[in-house]
Amino acid sequence: YGIEPVPGEDNQYIAYVAYPLDLFEEGSVTNMFTSIVGNVFGFKALRALRLEDLRIPVAYVKTFEGPPHGIQVERDKLNKYGRPLLGCTIKPKLGLSAKNYGRACYECLRGGLDFTKDDENVNSQP
């Protein structure tokens, strides 16, 4: 909601950005952070970028309940021990129907991966 030049620097700016909270899934730290910084750092038009400050409203912070369990529970569920867990992110992140997204996940898991991950802005799929 505002841009100002960095004092004493050519072609450098500070951008102030604000997002409405209803863009983010309640209780999802992952959704919030990847929505804010996920793809932005990959924009080709940007030569350099850094996040210097992040302010999260208290009402939204209260929706974070913390992780339900740790890595040992995940290993127990998967029956995978003594090695790294292998996963992937399904691409494209948008544009697949729920059926095709599910099929892509199935094929990845069938091929030997331990898990798949929703891409940055894919969450709460029907």
Automatic annotation (TrEMBL):
The Ribulose bisphosphate carboxylase large subunit C-terminal domain extends over 70-126
Q: How is the cofactor bound?
A: Binds 1 Mg(2+) ion per subunit.
Q: Name one GO biological process term.
A: reductive pentose-phosphate cycle
| Gene Ontology terms for molecular function | magnesium ion binding; monooxygenase activity; ribulose-bisphosphate carboxylase activity
Instruction: Give the top-level enzyme category.
Output: lyase
Name the reaction it catalyses.
Answer: D-ribulose 1,5-bisphosphate + O2 = 2-phosphoglycolate + (2R)-3-phosphoglycerate + 2 H(+); 2 (2R)-3-phosphoglycerate + 2 H(+) = D-ribulose 1,5-bisphosphate + CO2 + H2O
Which residue range or ranges hold the Ribulose bisphosphate carboxylase large subunit ferrodoxin-like N-terminal domain? 2-60
PROSITE patterns in the cross-refs = RUBISCO_LARGE
Enzyme Commission identifier(s) = 4.1.1.39
Main location (coarse class): plastid
Location(s) in or outside the cell: Plastid, Chloroplast
InterPro entries associated with the record? RuBisCO, RuBisCo_large_chain_AS, RuBisCO_lsu_C, RuBisCO_lsu_C_sf, RuBisCO_lsu_fd_N, RuBisCO_lsu_N_sf
Which cofactor does this sequence's record say it needs?
Mg(2+)
Which Gene Ontology cellular-component terms appear in the entry? chloroplast
Q: Could you list this entry's UniProt keywords, alphabetically sorted.
A: Calvin cycle, Carbon dioxide fixation, Chloroplast, Lyase, Magnesium, Metal-binding, Monooxygenase, Oxidoreductase, Photorespiration, Photosynthesis, Plastid
Tell me the domain of life.
Answer: Eukaryota
Keyword Oxidoreductase set for record: yes
Q: Which Pfam families match?
A: RuBisCO_large, RuBisCO_large_N
What is stated as this protein's family in its record?
Answer: Belongs to the RuBisCO large chain family. Type I subfamily.
Question: What does this gene product do?
Answer: RuBisCO catalyzes two reactions: the carboxylation of D-ribulose 1,5-bisphosphate, the primary event in carbon dioxide fixation, as well as the oxidative fragmentation of the pentose substrate in the photorespiration process. Both reactions occur simultaneously and in competition at the same active site.
Subunit structure, per the record? Heterohexadecamer of 8 large chains and 8 small chains.
Protein name stated in the entry: Ribulose bisphosphate carboxylase large chain
Query: Taxonomically, what lineage is the organism?
Result: Eukaryota, Viridiplantae, Streptophyta, Embryophyta, Tracheophyta
